Amino acid sequence: MIIDSHCHLDYEPMFSSLDEVINRAKESKVNLMLTISVADNKYNVILDIIKKYPQVYGTYGIHPHEAKNHLDLTSEKIIKKVNLSNKIIGIGETGLDFFYNHSEKDEQLNLFEQHIEASIESNLPLIIHSRAAEADTYKILKKYSNKKDLKILMHCFTGSKKFAKDLLDLNAYFSASGIITFKKTNELKETFKSLPINKILVETDAPYLSPEPFRGKSNEPTNIIYTAKYLSNLKNIEFKSFCKQTSENFYKLFGKLN
Length: 258
Prior knowledge:
The chain is of the alpha/beta class. It has one domain (2-254): Alpha-Beta Barrel (TIM Barrel), CATH 3.20.20.140. It has helices spanning 18-27, 43-52, 75-82, 105-122, 134-143, 161-168, 186-194, 224-234, 239-254, and strands at 2-7, 30-35, 56-60, 88-97, 126-131, 152-154, 173-176, 200-202. Strands 1-2-3-4-5-6-7-8 form an eight-stranded parallel sheet. Helix 3 (75-82) links the parallel strand 3 and strand 4. The two termini are 17 Å apart.
């Protein structure tokens, strides 16, 4: 059993052939998938997906790229969206992206804090995107670190070892994507070697970031096994044990699912 902790099943090319995508995942023993929200106008699609497929759960959140289009979104509004289904089990994808800066910094910062407050209020994990924003991401999370209900998951973590260490002090979890399998990611490999196994999850971020040997092609949940096998070898843990542990980590973070 293995869990894809972050994918976008509402994106093409997967959405047009979801039955086949889900069946291929089943054949690879991907028993659960978490499909991630990035914008309000596609949330109804996520709700439809999680209603149709028992093994798919969802989140509600706004990607930092989309902050400029959600200036009036508050923590109260986020919680109302979450409460539309008991299969919505996380807040996000939220965070900061100062690499592309598709939204202004102040817009991103404000929206990130609204998500954090909603996460604390709802006691649901916060799924964080952080790119070229380590200092600001940590500063904001540290500000809320006295809140015992803040649960942090760093999605597709590619940050520095120091950033990882600082986040561990905040009891964060870290999700590895197909990037870990790429040849020129030695620093990231060393970072994941240093992380405790009880803080690691795996994801596809499908349809993006296909692992080797499928790099450059459209990704889907079935490919999570390649990332998991690579990471289990990297950490010198037997594959089945690695899958069991990362699945347990998922349930420890997200709780018992209905």
